[in-house]
Amino acid sequence: MAERIQLHDLHFKPYLSEAQIQARIRELGQEIAADYQDKKPLFIGILNGAFMFTADLARACHFDADFAFVRLKSYEGTSSSGEVITMIGLKAPVEGRYLILVEDIIDTGRTLHTFLPQLQAQNPASVRIAALLSKPEARVKPLEADYTGFEIPNKFVVGYGLDYNELGRNLPAIYQLED
Ligand code: 5GP
Ligand code: MG
Ligand code: MG
């Protein structure tokens, strides 16, 4: 197993290995295929955190689909700022489309709680959520993903797209903040 790492001033221990993540993503691809095979869904990846998950999920979904990205921001350091800012908005038309939002992690739920109504206002055929990680104990807004990779405890994690002040996104595995 990989070793503990340091990013800036904090230490992290191995939590989900690259093999565990990739195996779970293959299962999610199969679940999503069963529901969307003939619907040509539009996956909307939420940058920056979901860039790696979106790319791997795309390769696990063996059916016609398109991909778009938005950039939303709510985190500063290791905690949610409570405010959601749209840094880059959606350019693709979504009316009548089957949308699948792709998130790295659902924490307080504020990001998607803010973003979902903005999408619903544009009359898509449907909107579902795929999240690699979920911290149910941290929820402030009632919100669940339709496809969840792993439910995890309320501890800060990094790697596989997730950063600590912009470090750690390129790690192929996920690490948890040490107590
Ligand atoms: P929300 O609180 O709105 O559900 O989460 C918004 C975003 O905060 C997530 O998409 C993710 O980018 C970031 N975030 C939430 N929990 C963590 C965490 O444990 N580690 C890191 N690096 N980012 C997180
Ligand atoms: Mg995110
Ligand atoms: Mg971040």
Layout: helices, strands, pairs:
Blueprint: E1 5-7, E2 10-16, H1 18-36, E3 42-47, H2 51-60, E4 66-76, E5 79-88, E6 98-106, H3 110-120, E7 126-134, E8 147-151, E9 157-158, E10 174-177
Parallel strand pairs: 3-4, 3-6, 6-7, 7-8
Antiparallel strand pairs: 1-2, 2-10, 4-5, 9-10
Helix pairs in contact: 1-2
The site of one magnesium ion has 5 residues, from strand 6.
GO molecular function: guanine phosphoribosyltransferase activity; hypoxanthine phosphoribosyltransferase activity; magnesium ion binding; nucleotide binding
Keywords: Cytoplasm, Glycosyltransferase, Magnesium, Metal-binding, Nucleotide-binding, Purine salvage, Transferase
Subcellular location: Cytoplasm
